[in-house]
């Protein structure tokens, strides 16, 4: 079961990296949500990198 969370972290981290790099941009219903998304862009990028690396380390060490 612990191995599942490692792969889940890798997948979620990659998705967050794609969002942070604006490769994937979701559709927004309001301008306020769009502005909030662009404010948090670097959070998604750094958080995604950290989460993906954590998943890779857990897979390598298991």
Question: Could you characterize what this model shows?
Answer:
This protein has 62 residues and is an all-alpha fold. 79% of the residues lie in helices and 0% in strands. The relative contact order is 0.26.
Give a brief description.
The chain has 62 residues and is an all-alpha fold.
Largest sheet: none
How large is the count of helical segments? 3
Q: Outline the low-pLDDT stretches.
A: none
Shape: elongated
Beta content comes to: under 5%
Helix content: over 70%
The succession of helices and strands, N to C, reads HHH
Average pLDDT, all residues: 90
**How many beta strands in the DSSP annotation?**
0
Radius of gyration: 14 Å
| Overall domain count | 1
Task: Give the structural class.
Answer: mainly alpha
Distance between the termini: 12 Å
Topology:
Blueprint: H1 2-20, H2 31-39, H3 41-61
Helix pairs in contact: 1-3
Key features?
mainly alpha, 62 residues, 3 helices
